[in-house]
Amino acid sequence: MIAADQAANTGTTPVRHGYGFDEARLDGWMAAHIPGYAGPLAVAQFKGGQSNPTYRLATPGRDYVLRRKPPGALLKGAHAIEREARIFTALGRTGFPVPHVHGLCDDETVIGTPFFVMDMVEGRIFWDATLPEVERDARPAYFDAMSAVLARLHGIDPQAIGLGDYGVAGNYFARQIARWSRQYLEDAQAGRDPDMDRLLEWLPAHIPEGGDVAIVHGDFRIDNLVFHPTEPRILAVLDWELSTLGHPLADFFYHAMMYHMPPHVVAGLAGADLPALNIPSEADYVAAYCRRTGRNGISEYGFYLAFNFFRLAAIFHGIKGRAMRGTASSFHARERAESFPVLANMGWQHAMRWRN
C-alpha cells in the first residue's frame, strides 16, 4: 500500500479531466506579474494533493508550482489558498523553510479559480515514515530535523511577522471541534459514523486547560516535507492550507500521531519495529520536542491524540464527499474516503484509553 501511495502521489501526469484551464491566459498573467518569467509554458498536474489541485509549470529557464482552489461548489472556508500564500510570504522573511511565492491571483477569470505561483523546490519526499531509502544510522537525524523545524515554527512570534490576525487567539480546541463537527454534519452525502458521533460529544467535555498560542501548520506530516537530496535537512514545508493561530500541542500531536497511524492510511509507524529501524521511540520523540520548547512533559496525551484522529477523520470525510461529487483532486481520493471510519474508530479508542 505504501508503494501504491508513493506511485499515486509522486511526479506529474497530464492535466486531468475537469482540472484544465486556459494556459494562454495563465501565460499572459505570469508574464505581467512575475519578474523574469519567460515562456513557452508547459503545464502538468501533480499526482498528489487531496484538496487543492497543484500543477508544475515548466519553462525553458525554470520551473514553478501553481496551487489553486478546486473547481465546483466548495464548503465555506475550505481551500483557502490565499491564506497559504500569505503564510509562505510571512515565514519566508524569517528564513523558515517554505517556497518563495511569486504571485497571488484572486481574479477567477484567469484560470477559473484563485491561485498562487511559487518556487519549485527539488528534493526528497518520503512516503514511508520508516525511511527505507535512508541508511539505518542516519534515520535519527531525519526525525530530529522534523522535531526541530516544528519546534522552530512554534517559537515564531506571530505578531512580529505580521500574522497576529492570522487566527483567533484562545479557545482553539473548542473552535476546531466545532468547525470540523459542523463540516462533518453538513456533508450529509458522505454519511455518518457512530465513532465520529461519539467523539463529537466526548471531545468538547474533555478539553485541557491552558491557552498556548502559536502558528500551527495543521498538516505537519513527513510526506508534506521536502528534504535535501542527500542530507537530513528540510528544504521546504508544504501544504499550509490548514494553518492558523492555534495550540502548539495540537500541531505537535497531529505530527506525533504517526506513531499510532497505520501505514496504509497515511505515512505511519504503527506496527513497525522501531529499535530495529533505529527510529526514536514515541517517548523519546515527545521528550525532544519538550526540550526544544521548554516544556516539562505533556499531560492529557490521550485527548490530543483523540482530537487529532477526529480532525483527520473529518478531513477524510470531506474527501469522501468530494469523491462522491466528483470534485476530489487526488488519484486515490476514494481510498482515503474508505479510511474515514478507521480514523474515527482510532480516535474513539484513544479517547476511551485515556479518558479521565
Description:
By secondary structure, the protein is an alpha+beta fold. It has two domains: 2-119, Phosphorylase Kinase, domain 1, CATH 3.30.200; 136-353, Aminoglycoside phosphotransferase (APH), C-terminal lobe (Aminoglycoside 3'-phosphotransferase, Chain: A, domain 2, Alpha-Beta Complex), CATH 3.90.1200. The protein is 41% helix and 12% strand. It contains twelve helices and ten strands. The strands form three sheets. The chain has a six-stranded antiparallel sheet with strand order 1-2-3-4-6-5, sandwiched between helices. Strands 7-10 form a two-stranded antiparallel sheet. Strands 8-9 form a two-stranded antiparallel sheet. Helix 5 runs parallel beside helix 10 (282-293). It is globular and about 55 Å long. The relative contact order is 0.14. The model has no long low-confidence stretch (mean pLDDT 90).
- The backbone outline, from C-alpha atoms, is globular
Total of helices: 12
Average residue-wise pLDDT:
90
Widest beta sheet: strand line-up: 1-2-3-4-6-5
Number of domains: 2
Helix and strand composition category? alpha+beta
Attribute tags:
single chain, Phosphorylase Kinase, domain 1, alpha+beta, six-stranded antiparallel β-sheet, Aminoglycoside 3'-phosphotransferase, Chain: A, domain 2, 12 helices, 12% strand, 2 domains, 356 residues, globular, two-stranded antiparallel ribbon, 41% helix, 10 strands
